[in-house]
Each structure stands twice: as structure tokens, then as C-alpha cells.
Design goal:
Length: 65
């Protein structure tokens, strides 16, 4: 899969999981803790994948010589 296509799929999923985390953290009575924790681990994995896919851009813009 091309990097651009992967990011077009990954970014909306990351946004939805982040919104879910914010809502479930703000209103803990709505979602069991185990679900909140699992979604947090999923969010961490997605963020790591996002950084890996964008590493050339990060390196070019933040680690300039």
C-alpha cells in the first residue's frame, strides 16, 4: 500500500479513536475502563505508525543541519 493512501485511512481512524478517548475519559460512566484502556493502546499504536509513516517529513523539518 502506498504511504499516502495508508495515511488517508489512518488519520481519520486516529481522529475517531482520539475523540472516543476524550469522551470516555470525560464521562467514565459511559464506557467501561477496559474499553477505554484498549482504545488508548490502539491510539498509541496508531500514533507510532503515523510517526513512522511521516518520519521523512519530520526528519527534514525538525532535524535540519
Amino acid at each position: 500500500m502506498q504511504k499516502t493512501k495508508a495515511l488517508k485511512i489512518l488519520i481519520p481512524i486516529m481522529a475517531l479513536v482520539l475523540i472516543f478517548q476524550l469522551i470516555s475519559g470525560a464521562f467514565p460512566a459511559l464506557v467501561p475502563y477496559a474499553v477505554h484502556r484498549a482504545a488508548g493502546l490502539l491510539l498509541a499504536a496508531i500514533v507510532i505508525l503515523h510517526v513512522i509513516l511521516n518520519w521523512p517529513w519530520i526528519r527534514a523539518n525538525y532535524f535540519k543541519r
